[in-house]
Amino acid sequence: MKFFRKLRRDEEGATAIEYGLIAALIAVAAITAMNSLGGELSSTFNKVSTTMSEANKEAKE
After folding, report:
1. pLDDT digit string (tens) for 2-43?
2. What residues form the membrane-spanning segments (predicted)?
3. What is the DSSP track for 18-61?
4. Range of 45's domain?
5. Predicted local confidence at residue 42, as pLDDT
6. Rounded to 5 degrees, what angle do the CA atoms 46, 51, 52 make?
7. What DSSP designation does 17 have?
8. What Å distances lie between residue 56 and 40, 44, 46, 48, 49, CA to CA?
């Protein structure tokens, strides 16, 4: 019986679970932000690449 009373008072496990949930929430938010930002970056780099290719073609003419 003492074991169960001690286990009930012990809050270290609950704290670890809370930290784990916070870390998971931060990870999901970071992944979501990176996915949306990644699409915008890809678009920007494609525009830059196209512009540089066209400028290179004009310079060769």
Report:
1. 766 665 666 666 778 888 899 999 999 999 988 888 888 888
2. 21-38
3. HHHHHHHHHHHHHHHHHHHHHHHHHHHHHHHHHHHHHHHHHHH-
4. 1-59
5. 86
6. 100
7. H
8. 24, 18, 15, 12, 10
